[in-house]
Every structure is written in structure tokens, then in C-alpha cells.
């Protein structure tokens, strides 16, 4: 099977890292979906969007034959994806926000509570040691 740049195909997620996901294409080759190409929103954790063995639609962005690297995009393979309406600006972060103010506030509160719990846990292990 011959694949071409710009083509949209279905592949299988074969690996997930903190910088993206590896996807096996129909011809057996594997390409990388960089974290910036996973979704139109800001992606902090790739695992929030894809899991191992997921079937995903990907757009082939480029082939680097000498290095045998294939660049892929999940976000550009979405039906109706329009680059002029993409929420992301330069730097990859969502410039309009992701969701309502209430959604963002709830996420902030949840993240803050998690971080406070981690700090309390780490501080608890240091109590009672050494003298002042």
C-alpha cells in the first residue's frame, strides 16, 4: 500500500510518550503524532486523548525518507477541521480558552487541591525529624 502526504488513514496507537503517540499505519510503518498534533486544545497529557491499541484517524504530514520518520496529525484528520478556525495560536496553546469560565475554574480548583495534597504528603514525611 502506497501512502501519500495529505492522505487520511486509520492507524493503531502502538506507543505513548510525554511528547506524542506512535501510530502504526496500514502499510505496517509507524509514524509519530507529536503532542501538538493530538488535539486542537492544549494537550498536557497525551494519555488524556489516546490509549494503547486505540484506532485513530491520522493525516500524513510528511515523510523523511533518509531518517525513515513519518509525521502524523490526529487533529488535522478530524472531519470538518479548518486551519483558519483552529483555536491554537503560535506556541500551540489554546488562545480562546478551552470551555467556559466555570469549566476552567473547576479544572484550576481540582489541580490546586491535588497539588496541595501532594505538598501536605511530602511535608508530613519531614515532620518530627531533626531538632530546632
The number of helical runs is 1
- Radius of gyration equals 20 Å
H-E string: EEEEEH
> What is the beta-strand fraction?
25-35%
The overall pLDDT average reads 83
Structural class: alpha+beta
* Low-pLDDT windows of residues: 89-97
Q: For the record, give the distance between the C-alpha atoms at the N and C termini, rounded to a whole number.
A: 72 Å
CATH architectural type of the largest domain: Beta Barrel
What is the domain tally? Answer: 2
The CATH superfamily of the largest domain turns out to be Nucleic acid-binding proteins
- Count of DSSP strands: 5
CATH class of the largest domain: Mainly Beta
Per CATH, what is the topology of the largest domain?
A: OB fold (Dihydrolipoamide Acetyltransferase, E2P)
Q: What percentage of residues falls in helices of 4 or more residues?
A: 10-25%
Q: Shape, please? A: elongated
Q: How are the strands ordered across the major sheet?
A: 1-2-3-5-4
The major beta sheet can be summarized as:
5 strands, mixed, barrel
Question: Which terms summarize this structure?
Answer:
132 residues; alpha+beta; OB fold (Dihydrolipoamide Acetyltransferase, E2P); 2 domains; 1 helix; 5 strands; 18% helix; elongated
Task: Walk me through what this model shows.
- The structure is a single chain.
- The protein has 132 residues and is an alpha+beta fold.
- The protein has 2 domains: 8-85, Beta Barrel (OB fold (Dihydrolipoamide Acetyltransferase, E2P)), CATH 2.40.50; 96-126.
- Helix content is 18%, strand content 27%.
- The protein is built from 1 helix and 5 strands.
- The protein has one helix at residues 101-124, and strands at residues 8-17, 20-24, 30-34, 55-64, 69-73.
- The chain has a 5-stranded mixed beta barrel.
- A hairpin with a 4-residue loop joins strand 4 and strand 5.
- The longest helix is centred in the C-terminal third of the chain and has 24 residues, at 101-124.
- Residues 89-97 have low confidence and may be disordered.
